[in-house]
Amino acid sequence: MRKIKVNLGERSYDIIIGSGILSKVGSYIASLNMGSHAYVITNKLISKKYAHLVCKSLEKNGISCKINNIKGNEGSKSLSVAGKVLNDLTRYGVGKKIFIVALGGGVVGDLAGFVASFYKRGVAYVQIPTTLLAQVDSSIGGKTAIDLPQAKNIIGSFYQPKLVFADTAVLKTLPKRQLQNGLAEVIKYAAIKDKALFLYLLKNYAKALSYNSAVLNFIIYRCAKIKAQIVSKDEKETKGLRTILNFGHTIGHAIEAAGKYKKYSHGQAVALGMIVAADISRRLALLKDGQYSELCSLIKKTGLPAKAKGVSFNNIMRLYLHDKKFIGSKNRFVLLKSIGNALVLSDIPPGIINSSIKQIF
Ligand SMILES: NC(=O)c1ccc[n+]([C@@H]2O[C@H](COP(=O)([O-])OP(=O)(O)OC[C@H]3O[C@@H](n4cnc5c(N)ncnc54)[C@H](O)[C@@H]3O)[C@@H](O)[C@H]2O)c1
Ligand SMILES: [Zn+2]
After folding, report:
1. CA–CA dist 77, 5 (Å, integer)
2. 2-173 maps to CATH 3.40.50.1970
3. Which protein residue has the closest C-alpha to ligand 1 atom 42?
4. What is the third-level CATH fold of 181-358?
5. How many angstroms does the Cα of residue 40 sit away from the middle of ligand 1?
6. Ligand 1: does its nearest atom lie under 6 Å from the Cβ of 187?
């Protein structure tokens, strides 16, 4: 079992990472004195597999456990589901000191964090991430969110959990597509901040894809550490440091939207976005051709796409420009100086962006 600290003064918390540790979560939670009633937000599928372990462990430590299964898809990150959960919490919570437990992937985590930040003007919550993406990314850093039909993650808050408890053994039941989804974010961390991790991935990608426990533990620890360090320095993305976590996401978001959130998963779209951003870096003479090729090769080996199919170039351009208008008139990209070394640049010549997007067709 390994521990990483997110250093945020009085909002500091630990990330615990280990394999087969779910049955120990109760004692960790009890030591935080958040209350005697846990309200566990999860979904049916995850609940069936893992909620009994969590609840048994909580009850052993004198904490009661109430489970609310929400639907297991992005549609649950909505005002209406948040409203229903808040209503249920209010009914259940009369006279109780409640805290919230998010048991699931990023959807459950984002919604549970959102609800925790608003119920009684904020109650404590714990993240128990069960997808690779959630273990390396969404459970850490306190970004909570729900979607509106007009835009993803458009309503939310910065609200830090009291604990992130990642049992890597639960990834064994994760579908391959979801594992690859998370690996896209892992490649992102390596590309922006950790060359040694990049080399490790080039050597061990096949083991990661076959759910090798030692490899996944290593990867998750390294990525969680990077996220914890960045969040500790720039909690609310006001200093520009947290921005580098968006590597591959500018064009990635446009690709996801162009495929109507069905054609490409988030990780697949980010993989294509990373290729575009690395290609821009190469055209600006920041990144060497060889390193660009290594990144493309790792993406392909992981089973992530290097070419966009079933979405049009024009649509991606249109959605990217719309997004840019939303954020501000200047374009801004996270680029690479080398593998493991990112920078943020604005005002990139539109011709270069155009050519780099064409590369993925
Ligand atoms: N808050 C943040 O900083 C942040 C960062 C990145 C992404 N996100 C958000 O995260 C969400 C995506 O999260 P995700 O990729 O984890 O997807 P997800 O939460 O939709 O989970 C994917 C699927 O895997 C299933 N699942 C989860 N754990 C499982 C397990 N152990 N075994 C079997 N099946 C399991 C779920 O039921 C679901 O069907 C998006 O809404 C995105 O906006 C948030
Ligand atoms: Zn992402």
Report:
1. 28
2. yes
3. 106
4. Dehydroquinate synthase-like, alpha domain (1.20.1090)
5. 16
6. no
